[in-house]
Specification:
The chain is an all-alpha fold. The protein starts with 11 loop residues before the first helix and ends with a helix.
Length: 432
């Protein structure tokens, strides 16, 4: 190290989030604020929708069926949305899909205000929202690396995780109060307002047109992205681990019923907020993640611990211990998510980033979506708490098996990986 080179942070400063992307990129700040605001509102609906279904039907299977109606739009539009993100202006895709989400909030609000709200609009809105999110997320995920310097990507991943968890903690906690004391209409109305503010912010960022090498959206282009992903076994490992963890151990659809079983209806908002709270606590001390280079090992370890924490939450009969283990699970999930994001952003070339983001979307969205169906079905036959703890145990076992079957995931090292080096060179050449 030369005499005038900056010394790396130490002590407490080394644990705090790195704000370099925030200081260096105005578009990063705008997109960050937009995501924070819209996520906050989305979490209000995230709680309100299953609560309304529970009130209207009284069925755990009916609440779990939300995942079933979201699945097909995820599969179709996730992959095609990735191709669109590579071929179209990413900012425009984000703006139009955000506006569409706002219109769906209007539909939920109008239905909630009816004297006798209908059940079917809830499923229709869930399916349409899944389609819009599936188109938006590849564009959003592939835009971050364009507005952030390559060396700042680990810090940006941590800051984005922090943004998500702030809304995830405040949104569900507030939603529990709003739904209980003000009504569902207020939750849906607040969600609508957040989408309006988000659109205003996103339209002010710079345009992000397709790269010259990007293919037009087509089945051939989607297949090209899939072939690239299949050739990257360490990437496949991140997808498979996350899919297993979310499919087997995602208990969110059961939380209204778990609160009932524990005779703690007051705790529902806290239950929904506990997982994001754990993620928030990790993101607040995420500076250490920049010093880790074997990202695949951290993905595996964190996913296994997520499953064990969910299993513990299902076993406990004390509501405060349930909240504690849900918080621990959220922290583990955040660690896994940070390192998955770093691997994806630092090793995927720009012309393929949208299509790979579409595949990523399937890995971290299909799991929770189908997992709701699994959780609801298990609960119908074997009980709510058995569904929760058994899913956690199965998750830990599945993650361990995947680690044995995918050695490239366990040996990945960002310092020596050739794909990471190629992307670094690509970014450097683009800045010349």
């Amino acid at each position: 190290m030369t005499d005038d080179a900056p010394e790396p942070p130490s002590g407490l400063r080394a644990m705090l989030p790195d704000l370099a992307p925030w200081r260096a990129s105005r578009d990063f700040r705008r997109l960050w604020y937009a995501g924070l605001i819209s996520n906050f509102g989305s979490f209000l609906t995230f709680v309100a929708l299953p609560v309304q279904l529970k009130d209207l039907t009284g069925s755990a299977a009916a609440v779990g069926a939300i995942g079933a109606v979201e699945l097909i739009p995820l599969l179709v539009f996730g992959l095609y949305g990735g191709a669109l993100a590579d071929a179209w202006d990413k900012r425009k895709l984000i703006v139009w899909t955000e506006a569409g989400q706002g219109l769906l909030s209007v539909a939920l609000l109008l239905n909630a205000l009816l004297p006798h709200p209908a059940v079917w609009p809830l499923y229709v809105v869930a399916a349409l929202s899944s389609a819009l999110v599936s188109v938006q997320r590849p564009a959003l995920d592939s835009l971050w690396p364009r507005i952030v310097a390559h060396d700042h990507l680990p810090a940006a991943a941590s800051l984005n995780s922090f943004r998500w968890t702030v809304g995830g903690v405040a949104g569900p906690a507030l939603a529990g109060v709003v739904v209980a004391y003000a009504g569902l209409g207020w939750a849906y109305g607040a969600d609508l307002l957040t989408f309006v503010v988000s659109v205003v912010l996103v339209v002010r960022i710079a345009a992000s047109p397709a790269s010259h090498e990007a293919a037009k959206p087509s089945l051939k282009a989607i297949a090209e992205g899939a072939r690239y992903a299949w050739g990257r076994k360490e990437l496949l490992g991140t997808y498979a681990v996350d899919l297993a963890a979310m499919f087997l151990a995602m208990p969110l659809a059961l939380l209204p019923f778990l609160a009932d079983e524990l005779d703690a209806d007051w705790s529902l908002g806290l239950m929904y907020a506990s997982v994001p709270l754990g993620a928030l606590l990790v993101s607040l001390v995420s500076g250490w993640t920049a010093r880790i280079h074997r990202h695949g090992r951290m993905v595996v370890l964190a996913a296994a611990l997520w499953g064990l924490a969910i299993a513990a939450a299902g076993i406990m009969s004390n509501v405060w211990l349930v909240l504690l283990f849900l918080t621990v699970a959220g922290g583990c999930d955040m660690v896994s998510g940070i390192f998955r994001g770093i691997m994806w952003n630092q090793t995927i070339p720009d012309e393929l980033r949208g299509r790979l983001a579409g595949i990523e979307l399937l890995s971290y969205s299909v799991g929770p979506t189908v997992g709701q169906v699994r959780a609801g079905g298990f609960a119908s036959y074997w009980g709510v708490r058995t569904s929760v703890w058994s899913g956690g145990v199965l998750c830990a076992g599945a993650v361990g098996l995947l680690a044995l079957c995918l050695p490239k995931l366990m040996t990945y090292d960002a310092r020596t990986d050739r794909h990471a080096a190629q992307v670094r060179d690509q970014r450097a050449a683009a800045q010349v």
